Amino acid sequence: MDYRPGKDFAQEMDAGDPLREYRSRFLVPKHQNGDECIYFCGNSLGLQPKTASRYVEEILKDWETLAVEGHFRASRPWMAYHERLGEQTARLLGAKPLEVTVMNTLTVNLHLMLVSFYRPTPHRYKILMEANAFPSDRYAVKSQLRFHGYDPADALIELPLRRGEVLHRSEDIEALLEAEGGTIALVMLGGVNYYTGQVFDMERITRAAHARGCTVGFDLAHAVGNVEMKLHDWKVDFAVWCTYKYLNGGPGSTAGAFVHEKYAHTLNLPRFAGWWGHEKATRFLMPADFLPIPGAEGWQVSNQPILPLAPLRASLDIFEEAGMEKLRRKSRLLTGYLEFLVERIGEERVSIITPRDENQRGCQLSLVMKRDGQAVFKKLGERGVIGDWREPDVIRVAPAPLYNSFAEVFRFAELLEELV
Ligand SMILES: *Cc1c(COP(=O)(O)O)cnc(C)c1O
Is 183 a pocket residue for ligand 1 (Cβ < 6 Å)? Predict the structure, then answer.
């Protein structure tokens, strides 16, 4: 795309944007002066779909009028409320409905998956993670290692970065797996790194890891609703994600898990069980022995909290309507335009650590402030820009194709140039 620096370019792009109407489906926070904020923080908490409150109200109303009978007789019966959400999410992930469920929260799901898929043996017991993994993932993995009697200092391998580089290279990951794969039980990476915005080549890494006999899991917190995936075809063993970032499920909303079809009928796989993972036909006969539902639902533990599923339902309906392919097409343009404008400000003032290759990134750009970063971030906030600050010098901004516009990207770049 040949981007142009003038404001008219942004106006032309917005006018020709087939997804431009979707912004009006969301509630955009307002700045003190009454204008809508430039909200580039969908990678942290997505905006509220306008239909969310109606969906929540519907559940409250059913609870009021039907009480316990709502499980079966609610306008959307609570017993099956999560099932459609699993199917919709599966489409976003390139997965089969059988392979996906929504449940719990992200880190909880990571623990549940590690119970089943981190199966160390005396010779193969290590876990490979990225160097700058999200803290919660590190804590979870380290605690699991200790739980199995290993010392993270020995059993946790962090993918090294080349000197002076912040991005991982697929060929280095392959080389590491080639050299040390025989001792690695599990490769556990973020699909998209939260700090740099780098998208890992999940297909290539999974292939290399499987060739060395390792199990592969991805944390898709920053990938779902952001980039296109084919988890089933890539033969990823398991994945987890939260739904409050690009999926707009609302603060702390219900998360999800993917378990590849190849395990769907391995009913004796070790797992931490609960009654909601038990076969639906016999669940209420209250049998003494656990018989898992085939597929990802077999990892459910408790009955579903229905209320937080309502906003997620509202958002997934919108995703379904807009289509991930169209969203991704707009996202490439939107983020590419942001990159173009930021580069014009000059590397001596702002640089970008996110990959330049649009296939290796999603919505987010991580901007390194060369001077007074925190002050710049604060002033951007005072002018109505919502992004986020990461120590020591990074501002993360993520224009989301569902509700952000080219005009907002233009305005943001204008403000940034003025402030740095
Ligand atoms: C957002 C995020 C989390 C958050 O975990 P919760 O269990 O939802 O609090 C964990 N890991 C990654 C990679 C994230 O981006």
Answer: no
